[in-house]
Amino acid sequence: MAGGRRTPGLRGTLGLVGRGAAMGAADVVPGVSGGTVALLTGIYDQLIESIHDGSRALGRLLRFDIGGAVRQLARVDWRFLVPLFVGLLGAVVLLAGVIEDALVDHPEPMAGLFLGLVAASVVVAQRGVAWTSGRLAVAGFVGAVLFVVLGWQGAPVTDPSAPALFASGAVAICAMVLPGISGSFLLLMLGMYATVIEVIDERLLGDAAIFGAGAVVGLACFSTVLARLLADRPDEVLAAMVGLLLGSVRVLWPWPHGVGVVSRHSDHAVGGTGLGWPDTANGLVAPVLLAVGAAAFVLGIDHLARRNPPADTPADTPADTPAD
C-alpha cells in the first residue's frame, strides 16, 4: 500500500460500500450506467486510476513477471476498491431479478425515475468542464451518435458459446465505467442480457467465470486507454461523457414502453427505444413525478457534498507508482 494514502475509516468504508451498491444497482438496468453513479458521487477519477493500477499488475503477470505483478498489486488502493466492489457485486447478485421484474411490471415509472437521475447527472457533470465551442461540439456529436446507436437491439441469444460469453463480459465491463453507456443495454443489443441475468440468478458458476474473465481482461485494457485520456485531455473526455449521458436518454424515455429489457422468463423484448407520448394524462403523472423527485434527490446530494466534503474519504493523492 502506498504511504501517501489514508485509511478511509469506518464512515468512509461504509460510504464506498454504498457507492458500490448504487453502481451495481445501476449496472443491472439497461440504460443506466454504473459509471454515471461513480461520476455523480465524485469517485470516478479515483476509480479509473485504481483500476489502471490493477491492469498494470495483470500486464506484468501476462509477461510472466510474477515478482513485478506482486509489487504492482501492493501499490493498488485496495482500501478503496475492495469496499466499492463488495457493494457493487452484492447489489448485482441481490437486485438483478428484482430490478428486472420492476422494469417488466412498471416500465414507464421506472424509466421516469432513471431519466431524472441521468438528467441531474448531466447538470452535475457539466460543472467540471471548462466549456469551449470545440468541447460543446464534442458533447453534441457523441450524444447524437449514441442516441442513434441505442436504437439498435439484437434478438436474444440462446445457449451462447464460451467465446461469446467472454466477449460479452469484455464489452459490458467497458461500458460500466463510461457514464451514459449501460453495460446491460449493450448486452441487450448483443442479445445476451437474458442469458447473463440467468447466469447470475441461477448461480451458473462456470458461465459466470468465463464472463468474469472477459470482464477482467476488457477492463484492464480499456482502463489503460481511459486513464491516459483523462490525464492528457480531461476536459475533452468529460465533455464526451456529458454527451454520453445526453445520448442515453434514448433508452430512458418513458413512453411508449419505458426502459428496454429482455425477460428471462419469456425471452422477448419488453419496452424498447421508441419515442412517444402517453396515451392518457394518468400515464404522464407517475413517470414525471419520479423523474422530478430523482433529479431533486441527486442535485440535493450534490449540493450537500460540495458544501460538506467528507473528511475521511480516501485521499485522491495518487500512488508513487512508476510507469511501465
Characterization of the model:
This protein is mainly alpha-helical and 324 residues long. It has one domain. Helix content is 69%, strand content 1%. It contains 14 helices and 2 strands. The protein has a two-stranded antiparallel ribbon with strand order 1-2. β1 and β2 form a beta hairpin. α2 packs across α6, α3 runs antiparallel to α4 and α5 runs antiparallel to α6. The longest helix is centred in the first third of the chain and has 28 residues. The chain starts with 8 loop residues before the first helix and ends in a 17-residue tail after the last helix. The relative contact order is 0.19. The C terminus is likely disordered.
Overview features:
two-stranded antiparallel ribbon, 2 strands, globular, disordered C terminus
Describe what is shown at a glance:
By secondary structure, the protein is mainly alpha-helical.
Give the arrangement of secondary structure elements:
Elements lengths: L8 H19 L6 H7 L3 H19 L3 H10 L2 H28 L1 H20 L6 H17 L12 H15 L6 H8 L2 H9 L3 H28 L1 H14 L1 H4 L8 E2 L6 E2 L11 H26 L17
Antiparallel strand pairs: 1-2
